[in-house]
Amino acid sequence: MATPSINGPRLLASLAELGQVGALEGGGVCRLALTDADKAGRDWTVARMRALGMSVSIDAIGNVVATHAGQQDGPAVMTGSHIDTVRTGGLYDGNYGVLAGLEVVAALRDAGVRTRRPIAVAFFTNEEGARFAPDMMGSLVYQGGLALEAALSTTGIDGKTVGDELRRIGYAGPAPVGANRVDSFIELHIEQGPVLHREGVRIGVVEGVQGISWTEFTVHGVSNHAGTTPMNMRNDAGYVAACVATFARDLTRRLGGNQIATVGAVTLAPNLVNVIPNKAVFTVDLRNTDGEALKAAEAQLWAQAERIASEEGVRCERRMLARFDPVAFDPAVVRRIESIAAGRNLSHRRMPSGAGHDAQMLAPMCPTGMIFVPSIDGLSHNVRERTEPEDLVAGAEVLLQALTDLANRP
Ligand code: HGY
Ligand code: MN
Ligand code: MN
Question: What structural domains and CATH numbers belong to the chain?
C-alpha cells in the first residue's frame, strides 16, 4: 500500500476552479451565504465530493457533510470549513479548508488507504455572517447552540429569511441537526492576519479563538434643514453614530491588551448632503482574547452610546447580532499538530485566532484544533487575499497527517 501524499497541483487547481464561481471583475469572489453564487459554489463542491465516492449528507440548515468510509463505522474524524464568502472575498478564506480536506480524501484514495475511522469533510452554512447574523450560524446549529427555527427565521441585511433562501437554493436538507456525533475536528485555514507572514513562520498551531461581540445600534433623531437649524436645536442621529464609532476606537487605546473594535456597517437616512440624519443604523464588532475584558469593553461602549444619545436628545436602540466567548482548543490536538509540523521541519508557533471559525463551534462537541498558514501581508476579507502555493500545500500535508493519525489511533 502506497503512502498517501498531497497532490499540490491538484489542490491549487481546485482552489482556482472554485474561485471562478462568483468571481469578481479584477479578482476575488463574492458568494454571500444562500445567494445564487453560494448555491453554485455548493453544487460545485458537492459534485467534487460525489466524484470522490463520498456519501453526502445535507442537514436542515444546509450544512453539507461528506464521508469517506473507514474500515469501521462510528463517529468520523472531521475536517472542513465554509465556502460562503464576504462581499470582497478572497480565494482561500474557508474554501482552502474544505478543498484541502477533499484533497486529503483524494490522496487516501490514490494510495488505496482506508483509515480505521471514517474521515468526513464538511462545509457549514453561513460562516461569514455578513448577510445573516450571527456568523458561524450553520456550525452553531450543528452543535445545538442555536435552535434550527431561530436560525431559519433570521432576517438578513436584504430582508430575506434564512429559511426562504435555503429552500430557494435547494439546500434545506433532510438530515437532522443538533444530534451529531463527531470523533474529532481539525480545521485548516489561512491566518487572515499578519503574524505568520511577518515572522516568516510556515505553520500556525492555533490554541483557541478570541471572544466576539457584534452590536447593531439604531439611532432615531429628527431630520431638519442643514442650513437653518441652529446647532443647539439638533437631534442628529449621524452625529451620535460618529461619536460612538470614535469612542470604540478610543476604547481600544484605553483598554490596550488585545482589545479591538471595528465599525463596519453604517447606514444614514435620508442620507442627503443637506438634511440632518433622522436615522442611523451601524454595527460595532468588539473582540478580545480575554473574556472579562471583552465584557468590560461592551459595558463601556453601551453606556457611552446611551450618554451621547441622551445629550443629543435622540433614541438609541441596540441588539446583539453575535456574541461568543473565547474558546480554547483541545491541548492534545494542539500538541499533535505542533509535533507534526516539527516532524516535517516546518517552522511553527502557537497563536490565538483573531477570526471566528466553525472549529470554535465544534470544540464543545469533540477534541478540536486548527492549523494556520500565512496570509501575505495579513490581508483577508479583501480581494487581494493571497498565500504562497508552497504554504497552501504544506498546510494540507500537515492536515493529512493529523487526520490520518486521529483516524488510525487505537
Ligand atoms: O467574523 C469572522 O471572524 C469570520 O470571518 N466570520
Ligand atoms: Mn473563514
Ligand atoms: Mn471570513
Answer: 8-210+326-408 (3.40.630.10), 218-324 (3.30.70.360)
